[in-house]
Fold:
Amino acid sequence: MSWKVEQGERLDFDDVLIKPQSSNLSSRADVVLTRKMTFMHSNRKWEGIPLMVANMDTTGTVEMCRALTPYKIITCLHKHYDVSDIPVDLDKDYYAVSTGTSTKDKEKLVQIMESLRPHFIVVDVANGYTLSFLEYCKELRQDYPQVTIIAGNVATPEMVESLLKEGGVDIVKCGIGSGSVCTTRIKTGIGVPQLSVALECGNAAEKNIGHIVSDGGCKTPGDIVKALGAGAHFVMLGGMMAGHEESG
Structure:
């Protein structure tokens, strides 16, 4: 195995600030937070606040979904829910069901899709750099052409492009090791500083008319703004959404 040290600066949220500029708005209350998007493969149109609650078992709960749907925020439900646990009256524009890539995960997903027909699926794996993951996304796109697929995690523009163009993914989940409870960097030394992830992966998505969600690293509302400013289309929150009454 050969190793190559990449030259060049990589940045995290704490490394940058946003330079102030003049504005025509008279108050922060005048800022419109909602965005309108059309997803490249599902062709589904969506409008809402570009935040996603992480599909962790302590945050991606039905209770969280009910609390945030009025604000047009997507909750990614954790994958431990059975089909009978997910209420049929949830707004399909503001929740996603989650799955892994095992045979058991796929069997459960088939039941959920047949029963609930959700608009969003999250394919969540620890390492998105495998051929089997790419193939799984391809199969999912073939099986459910009208569903918006969110998949990851990856942290490089090359893999974003592969998942968008070859895998049929609509929104690539970007970020490795930056989450508050993630131990990937400690155990493996793998990762990329998250602001640079949003910048580089966001650029790759724009070139391919796709979308990314910056997943991990946000400790304050200002970090969310930095991720969106760098090029993320959505920001996924885990630790910031934990510890509330609606959390698991």
In short: The beta strands are 35-38, 45-48, 51-53, 74-76, 95-99, 120-124, 148-154, 171-174, 211-215, 234-237. The first strand starts at residue 35 and ends at 38. The mean pLDDT is 93. Residues 51 and 126 are 21 Å apart (CA to CA).
